[in-house]
Amino acid sequence: MTPLEQLAANTLTSKERESTTIFERVDALAKDFATRAAIHDKEASFPFENFTALHEAGLLSITIPRELGGQGWGLADTCRVIEGIARGDASTALVLTMHYLQHAHASRHRRWHPEVYKQLCRESIEGIALLNAARVEPELGTPARGGLPATFAKRTADGWLLTGHKQYTTGSPILRYFVVWARTIEDEPQVGSFLVKRDLPGLRIVETWDHLGMRATGSHDLILENVLVPHEYALNLSFVSTTQPIDPLTATWNSLTLSALYHGVATSARNWLVEYLHERTPSNLGEPLASLPRFQMAIGEIEALLFANRKIIYSLAKDIDNNEYEPNVGLQAQAVKYLTTKNSLRAVEIGLELTGNPGLMKKNPLERHYRDVLCSRIHTPQNDVICQSLGKSVLKVK
């Protein structure tokens, strides 16, 4: 360490030293996860061992409030963790992201029953107790485009009876809790979510996930047949006529964490490509491909795309952490997602164009990174919705 670096290290606060240590753990875990990512992808098997390692490293509780035993991290550092893990295994990073988001949203709104939320936090700190939302349904599709859930909750003296069918429940093999979006059966129906523990009678997982990308996320179907949950496990119920729009900060966390994830995938693709170009020496050239101007220019284009991603993701994330954001921050975050996911996809495509057949061979990770980064188009909000919302804001129309 140089004298200047030593001086900088000595001036770090305890929180900064703690963060540095955790990010070092993230880098080590990502390298370990990468050694198994291709196998889990090929078999569509769930990486349970990765979450054991994340728990042992103290990385499952970073968005749980400090007063409840968590670390209470802000958006920028959370994005850094997600990006780092995504460099090793994108599927693991996606399940982790959904878990982080659920805790971050619950912490900010505190609409849950206090004792229920304390219990959830305690379980998530002491063991491997992940949670995620279950919203998409076969008939409705994504709820982001409007409509009411077919999943229903019936009030009884003992609690709520839930019945329904959810799809694409990311992380289902390991989740301890599902945050199930449903409507109530009442004279005036309400809509909201219900916290459902996986070991309750009537709950089952049907293994339907067989996808092009993110194959190790275990995003199977969730079936609920008269599953009884306590009254206090009903979350943020509201009448359909008074349902509030999504909180801008909730939407912002969602957009920026997903942006960081796919940026991590593209960065991993870039790293493999750089190594390949240094190692590949065609006999007719006598030098590595990295010596050719064409390949240098292409790597430069990738680097420009990744540079732009880093700047806009973390600039907005830091503004949010510092409470220096503008009223239209939700729309700004959507624009960041639109730009960065397109950049990430293009960065990996350039790698495929450069490498030809080797880039598409399963023994190399580039084709897996491409399949994973393609999934960035699926997550809410999707590109057409983002662009329409941006256009309406400029045109000042509803």
Automatic annotation (TrEMBL):
The Acyl-CoA oxidase/dehydrogenase middle domain, residue ranges: 137-227
UniProt-listed Gene3D superfamilies: Acyl-CoA dehydrogenase/oxidase, N-terminal domain, Butyryl-CoA Dehydrogenase, subunit A, domain 2, Butyryl-CoA Dehydrogenase, subunit A, domain 3
Annotated ranges, domain Acyl-CoA dehydrogenase/oxidase N-terminal: 24-100
UniProt KW Oxidoreductase keyword: yes
Residue stretches making up the Acyl-CoA dehydrogenase C-terminal domain: 257-380
Keyword set, alphabetical order: Flavoprotein, Oxidoreductase
Name of this chain's protein: Acyl-CoA/acyl-ACP dehydrogenase
Species this chain originates from: Anabaena azotica FACHB-119
